[in-house]
From TrEMBL:
Protein name: FAD-binding domain-containing protein
Gene Ontology MF annotations: FAD binding; oxidoreductase activity, acting on paired donors, with incorporation or reduction of molecular oxygen, NAD(P)H as one donor, and incorporation of one atom of oxygen
Keywords per UniProt: FAD, Flavoprotein
InterPro entries: FAD-bd, FAD/NAD-bd_sf, RIFMO-like
Organism: Kitasatospora aureofaciens
């Protein structure tokens, strides 16, 4: 089989995330190559929980039915707690809301399917779509990148033959020990070694033993016992045995089949159980997150980007969500319909999700009396980025909503599942979406068709679907639409290829280019710019002209060094965010950029000792050192140190007539409002993220080194 010399996307790692990305890229028509060092897919069941959100993704790929056939029946999705498998006082619980309520939120409830079975199905689909696109026994040896792409060297491990591959983009889906991540110089943050486990895959006739208590997972309450994971609730099982690497000789244990079988018997509470050990593996519980998901032409996904404790079952599913988010963006960029800045939104959307999932999973791991298994948690993900045009009046909130406090289908959220009438040929609103963008309406107003026609004439992939279309056989009243979207029946919602809502409008705009303009913004693509307002002003959507308070502070007042610091900040960030007005309040992503820009300017000012001529000579490493807490210090100590340096330069933090101090007071406040009688127009509420998070964001998205 000939090895390709070039490709659009080179994927490293053929686990569930890499294979899902391969399938989705093929669905989008993107040429790619996937290489995997191992000779084939996993033999070990590993992760087993496939969440509702992952099943919705697989539904779009035509895999849902096959995966359901390979998984445990819904009647066995329970969680067992007892001293052993035969404890008469066991407790058995199901998912918190039950299947009836779950069916109202998704057409594709989650299930238990062993990872080895899932990978086999994904591989079959990947090869159906790209017969030569997946190469096993092929490892990545090295790579380098320039402004035009990535130059990689791979090796076929069976023959030792090496090949040079040029790719536009490299995606590391190669697990927690990712070579792509380390090769790109991306660090991981967070604790390691939270637990160590020996995973024993075995056969034993346990079907009759658990017949009346069949569950997906069997948590053993006896100290040091771990738990059992059902593969088929009959003969095939996994036993997870905790161990102490400082105390236990795990290598000797793994080589002793008799002792391994005895561990299984003791944990099961069945001293005469016939056990056949098939294989073993060890794993370590970590809770880590990559500092960034992108380094120029290199991106990471799945365990390469986040290592999530298994308590909750969200690790693999978070990675599958990464692939879904990244695939359509790579497709748009490689097709030329989107600017490369769209790929920055992969991190700004997915990294906060992983951060929250890690925190929830850590809390689960510390729970003494069990924890909530939330199969539908990832359905609640709501994104905030430049790939979403959101209501600027909403305060920022975490991307996931574990308590379901924010229902509804607003911008950034997943398109709500609404079950279509029985006579309809499709079952869900989610089935109305297209591989490109979909403008979904209730009434089928012809004005929306004109919007779509204008966008399509500009070469942008968007389809119009209406719930009033005879093809859906819908006879809904306006109430169903209003309840789901909190919008009138005249409205439309623009749905991205990953089924998240990108934009909405309550009525058809008079201007037929409104949808086109929205798509250009979402895709970070070129578009005609509107005339700029006079310096220090900007125009709201309703036409109101507001004074931009940060204009007064960003190099338009203050000492020479402060002005020079802002000039350099604008020069570095303008190519990324599109303009030099980093204080347009309201949008949380803009708020983060505003804080990051102010933080970078302040760092330049401090490191140059307030001297304008020295500002251009400040290097990135100096800024990063200024951000770093000292031994035993917290982020609060860093902020205090910055304030002391400002005071040393003669700035009183409480002075009202000092533009440097005024900007610092807003920057050091996590969320606040500042009234200023010199600013004309309404008071703007800052929706920023504070000094260090904002600064970390702008350092991540910055395109050029300094």
């Amino acid at each position: 089989m000939r090895f390709p010399a070039s490709t659009s996307v080179l994927i490293v790692g053929a686990g569930p995330v890499g294979l899902t990305l391969s399938v989705l890229l093929s669905e989008h028509g993107v040429r790619h190559l996937l290489v995997e060092a191992h000779p084939g897919t996993s033999h070990h069941p590993k992760a087993r929980g496939v969440s509702a959100r992952s099943m919705e993704i697989f539904r779009r790929c035509g895999l849902e039915a096959d995966i359901r056939r390979a998984g445990l029946p819904a009647s066995q999705i329970f969680f067992y707690r007892g001293r052993s498998l035969v404890d008469p006082d066991f407790v058995r619980t199901g998912l918190p809301d039950g299947p009836a309520q779950g069916a109202e939120r998704t057409p594709s409830p989650g299930l238990i399917c062993p990872q080895n079975a899932l990978e086999a199905l994904l591989l079959r689909r990947a090869r159906q779509l790209a017969p030569d696109g997946v190469r096993f026994a092929t490892r990545l040896l090295s790579f380098s990148q320039d402004g035009d792409g990535v130059h990689a060297v791979v090796e076929e491990t069976n023959t030792g033959q090496r090949h040079a591959v040029r790719a536009d983009w490299l995606v590391g889906c190669d697990g927690a020990s990712s070579g792509v991540r380390s090769g790109a110089g991306i660090a991981m943050e967070g604790p390691t070694g939270l637990g160590h486990f020996l995973s024993i895959r075995f056969e034993a006739p346990l079907g009759d033993v658990v017949a009346e208590r069949a569950s997906a997972s069997y948590f053993l309450t006896e100290p040091g016992r771990g738990g059992f994971l059902a593969v088929d609730n009959d003969r095939h099982w996994i036993y997870q045995h905790p161990f102490d690497p400082q105390r236990d000789d795990i290598a000797d244990l793994m080589s002793d089949q008799l002792q391994l079988a005895q561990l299984v018997r003791e944990a099961a509470g069945l001293p005469n159980l016939e056990v056949t050990v098939q294989d073993t593996m060890t794993w370590r519980m970590d809770a880590q997150l990559a500092e960034t998901y992108r380094r120029s032409r290199v991106l990471i996904a799945g365990d390469a980007a986040h290592v999530i404790p298994p308590t909750g079952g969200h690790g693999m599913n978070t990675g599958i969500g990464d692939a879904d988010n990244l695939a359509w963006k790579l497709a748009a960029v490689t097709a030329g319909t989107a600017g490369q800045a769209l790929l920055d939104t992969y991190e700004s959307e997915r990294r906060p999700v992983a951060r929250q999932v890690i925190d929830l999973s850590l809390a689960n791991s510390r729970a003494r009396t069990g924890y909530r298994i939330d199969d539908e948690l990832l359905l609640t993900a709501a994104y905030r980025s430049t790939a979403v045009i959101a209501d600027t009046g909403e305060p920022p909130r975490p991307p996931l909503d574990p308590e379901r406090e924010h229902p509804g289908g607003g911008p950034g959220a997943r398109l709500p599942h609404l079950r279509l009438p029985d006579a309809a040929p499709i079952a869900s609103t989610l089935d109305l979406t297209d591989r490109g963008f979909t403008l979904l309406t209730h009434t089928g107003d012809t004005a929306w068709q004109r919007q779509v026609d204008t966008a399509r004439a500009a070469g942008l992939p968007v389809a119009l679907r209406s719930l009033a279309d005879p093809a859906t056989a819908s006879a809904w009243d306006d109430g169903a639409w209003t309840t789901a979207f909190n919008l009138p029946a005249t409205a439309a919602v623009l749905v991205r290829p990953d089924t998240h809502i990108a934009w909405q409008a309550p009525n058809p705009p008079a201007d037929d280019t409104e949808l086109l303009d929205a798509l250009h913004r979402i895709l970070s693509s070129q578009q005609p710019r509107r005339p700029r307002q006079p310096p220090g002003q900007y125009e709201r959507a309703d036409g109101t002209i507001l004074e931009e308070r940060s204009w007064l502070w960003q190099g338009h007042a203050g000492p020479q060094g402060w002005q020079a610091a802002w000039t350099r900040t604008r020069d570095l960030l303008a190519p990324v965010v599109g303009d030099d007005r980093f204080g347009m309040e309201g949008d949380p992503f803009r708020g983060k950029i505003a804080d990051g820009a102010a933080g970078l300017a302040t760092a330049f000012y401090l490191l140059a000792d307030g001297c304008g001529p020295q500002v251009p000579h400040v290097r990135r490493a100096q800024v990063e050192e200024l951000m770093r807490p000292g031994p035993g210090q917290s982020d609060g100590d860093v902020v205090q140190r910055w304030e002391e340096l400002l005071q040393a330069l003669g700035h009183d933090p409480d002075a009202d007539n000092d533009p440097v101090s005024k900007r610092w007071r807003i920057l050091r406040t996590d969320y606040g409002q500042e009234d200023d009688p010199t600013v004309i127009g309404e008071v703007l509420i800052r929706q920023g993220y504070g000094l260090l998070e904002g600064l970390a964001t702008v350092l991540t998205i910055m395109r050029q080194p300094f």
